[in-house]
Write a structure and sequence with these properties.
Helices cover 35% and strands 16% of the residues. The protein is of the alpha/beta class and 123 residues long. It has a single domain, classed as Rossmann fold (3-Layer(aba) Sandwich), CATH 3.40.50.720. This is 3-beta hydroxysteroid dehydrogenase/isomerase domain-containing protein.
């Protein structure tokens, strides 16, 4: 019996399973929350897969440790709750990976509303 890809895969997942290759990434990408744990990995993956420019947009500046210096990566410090800063960061982008968020139970309630709700509306 030959086992094929799961019937529960999306068309993109099925393509990857059948061909063993990923589709090309967009040329210009923005990653909000780009200096965070997941954001850093997404930024690196986009560059490794051929993105020409990746904007890492985060309120936390890039540190020397753990961040990749690459000519295709532009680090922009900005607040996701600032509509003008978000608008400026996404200009010319082909896609946006929105990963900026306040997480964990230790922040004031207003921060979750400002970052997670209003920040998402800005994107």
């Amino acid at each position: 019996m030959v086992v094929g890809p799961s019937p529960f895969l999306s068309p993109l997942q099925r393509q990857v399973a059948e061909t063993g290759s990923f589709p090309p990434v967009p040329k210009v990408c923005v990653v909000t929350g780009g200096t965070g744990f997941v954001g850093q990995r997404v930024v690196e993956m986009l560059v490794e897969r051929g993105a020409e420019k990746v904007v890492s947009f985060d309120i936390v500046p890039k540190t020397a440790d753990g961040h990749w210096d690459h000519p295709a990566i532009k680090y922009v410090v900005g607040d996701i709750a600032d509509k003008d800063a978000v608008f400026a960061a996404v200009q010319g982008a082909d896609c946006v990976f929105h990963l900026a968020a306040a997480v964990g139970p230790f922040h004031p309630r207003e921060l979750y509303l400002r970052v997670n709700y209003h920040g998402t509306l800005n994107v």
